[in-house]
Design goal:
Largest sheet: none
Mean pLDDT: 80
Number of helices: 12
Distance between the termini: 30 Å
Number of strands: 0
Radius of gyration: 19 Å
Low-confidence stretches: 308-316
Number of domains: 1
Structural class: mainly alpha
């Protein structure tokens, strides 16, 4: 079995990002395989999901030991997501074959990345709004122990179904789309519990999607081995650095990369992609500073303000 050193190095870098932020595995890995290593989209999705099925339990066990997992939420999410993930693979295969299937997977991946990038911005805004409400006394403080939440069974199952379908078809969503939906449904959960719950429910979700791709996708053992060889130690190192690294800055860079990847996968020409990214790079910081000022925060986050977010983030 041969390994591509460049691919292993790229996966190591992606693993660091996953360890730092708790998201970005499939959202970065699959487009990197497609855009930089010329891997067919279906092959990239299949191998990435199988590699993720090996990596996800590691982070999940960390959060289970720390007690930052709501197992009731995990149960209802999995009731929706596990069968939906397997069905997503079957649906993808039923919609086409050959070149048509590869093109469809690439377009679905581009759309999922665009949603994920938007979701990161929404997540940042919801966190800012939450801090403003607590600062002004307009919201109850977060519980200090394990948070008690009122289960919303039907919406939770629906989130699982939608997340499972997206993951089964694109490998994107288990660490980004689902966690943003949980933030909206259960605002009282601490960030560490959101990440822990999402990671644990992603274990059977990704395993179901991986099994579907092994049976009906385009799984390659040599490619998957390279992904695991690079990403596992990278994720471990990123987790070790997560309490000291500027997580907000990493997430903003991640959103920028996801947007760039989505535009290329959706077939936007290079010149237009460059213009869009340049405009975003210039305008987004200004807009974010205005949003912060609007909610009574200084335009630039202080060191004191960043610290609780980093501690709460936890190890993915």
């Amino acid at each position: 079995m041969s390994f591509d050193p460049a691919l292993v190095a790229a996966c190591f870098g992606i693993g660091i990002v996953v360890g730092l932020t708790g998201m970005g595995g499939g959202a970065l890995m699959t487009p990197v395989l497609v855009l930089f290593f010329n891997i067919p989209p279906l092959t990239a999705v299949s191998s990435d999901l199988v590699a993720a099925a090996v990596m996800k339990p590691v982070g999940g066990m960390v959060h289970l030991r720390r007690g930052t997992v709501n197992l009731h939420l995990v149960k209802w999410l999995c009731i929706g997501s596990v069968p939906a993930a397997f069905a997503g693979v079957l649906l993808m295969r039923a919609l086409g074959e050959g070149e048509q299937l590869q093109d469809m997977v690439q377009l679905a991946l581009g759309a999922a990345l665009l949603i994920a990038a938007t979701g990161l911005a929404v997540r940042a805004y919801l966190r800012l709004l939450e801090r403003a409400r607590r600062r002004d006394g307009r919201a109850a403080p977060l519980p200090q122990g394990r948070p008690e939440v009122v289960l919303r069974i039907l919406p939770t199952v629906v989130v699982g179904v939608v997340g499972g379908l997206v993951v089964g078809m694109t490998s994107v969503g288990s660490g980004s789309l689902v966690i943003i939906s949980l933030m909206a449904l259960y605002p009282l959960l601490k960030a560490s519990s959101l990440v822990g719950t999402d990671l644990v429910q992603a274990v059977p979700l990704v395993a179901s999607a991986a099994l579907g791709h092994i049976l009906f996708g385009d799984f390659r053992l040599d490619l998957t081995a390279s992904l695991i060889l690079g990403s596992v130690p990278g994720a471990w190192l990123g987790a070790r650095l997560s309490s000291r690294a500027p997580g907000g800055l990493v997430r903003r860079a991640l959103a920028f990369v996801l947007l760039a990847s989505s535009l290329k996968l959706l077939g936007v020409p290079t010149v237009q992609t460059g213009i869009a990214l340049a405009v975003l790079a210039l305008a987004a910081p200004v807009v974010w500073m205005l949003v912060r000022r609007r909610h009574g925060f200084p335009a630039l986050a202080s060191r004191r303000e960043r610290r609780p977010v980093l501690v709460e983030q936890g190890t993915p």
